[in-house]
Specification:
272 residues, alpha/beta, Rossmann fold, Dihydrodipicolinate Reductase, domain 2, 2 domains, seven-stranded parallel beta sheet, 10 helices, elongated
């Protein structure tokens, strides 16, 4: 048991944090060594099990990520862009695998991971599920096969509490479509249509976001041509798929060289 990789979960009290805790604790391939929360949170200083109302677990809740990461071989991070950037520096110092499911980064923020990836293994993906990553590969292939006479639209739906749009998964799918066409997504992205927008620009990749209820995650990639449409779809009904994927990434990264990776690498689906 003591030889198993030690995992730290950040943002322990959140819905995803608690799902990750449950997944790691149920695994026979890893052990949960600590969890973190923001300073001032009610859970800080308590045993995790007590904080969750489940009895003693022997896992501390701390607001000091440096202390927590020093004990770990991997950190699983589904928090916020600002928090994840701060964590990246500390995981690099600890030489721990940093699994990042956080979304909503700016292009400038993403540049920071280039530096951190020189010192630690970073696995970052807009979505950790097997199905979504298969969909990403299919999206790239279909986009490469079809010309600009097929318009591409990414439609996504999530629960009412999601704070960023388009979702990280939608952007990942848009990037795959753009790569398939040999263009940069930033040059062809079209999102947030409202009012008199004019006709669609040929070659643009559009995004539409739906928010409501308890939708876990739904993503459609629509290729719309004259007289026909191709729709690639993934429906998530349980957040456990993301937690299982994140743990798989944490374990996969244990023997890898420092650098930036994604779930396509983890699943052996990368072109490289």
């Amino acid at each position: 048991m003591s030889d198993l990789p030690g995992i730290v979960i950040t943002g322990a009290s959140g819905r995803m944090g608690q799902m990750l805790i449950e997944t790691v604790r149920a695994s026979d391939a890893a052990k949960l060594v600590s969890v973190t929360e923001r300073p001032g949170h009610d859970w800080v200083g308590q045993d995790l099990g007590v904080a969750m109302g489940q009895g003693e677990m022997g896992v501390p809740v701390t607001d000091d990520p440096l202390e927590a990461f020093a004990k770990a071989q991997a950190v699983i991070d589904f928090t916020s862009p600002a928090a994840t950037l701060a964590h990246a520096e500390l995981t690099a110092q600890a030489r721990a695998v940093h699994v990042i499911g956080t979304t909503g980064f700016t292009d400038e923020q993403l540049e920071y991971f280039v530096h951190a990836g020189r010192h630690a293994v970073i696995v970052r993906a807009g979505n950790m599920s097997l199905g979504v990553n298969l969909l990403t590969g299919l999206t790239k292939r279909v986009a490469a096969a079809l010309g600009e006479e097929f318009d591409i639209e990414v439609v996504e739906a999530h629960h009412r509490y999601k704070v960023d749009a388009p979702s990280g998964t939608a952007l990942m799918l848009g990037e795959a479509a753009a790569e398939g066409r040999g263009v940069k997504l930033s040059d062809v992205r079209d999102s947030g249509r409202d009012g008199i927008t004019g006709a669609r620009i040929s070659g643009d990749i559009g995004f539409s976001a739906i928010r409501g209820g308890d939708v876990v995650g739904e993503h459609d990639v629509i290729f719309a041509g004259e007289g026909e449409r191709i729709v690639l779809r993934h429906l998530a009904t349980d957040r456990k798929i993301f937690a299982r994927g994140a743990l798989r990434a944490a374990l996969w990264g244990q023997d890898k060289k420092p650098g930036q990776y994604d779930m396509m690498d983890v699943l052996g689906l990368s072109d490289g």
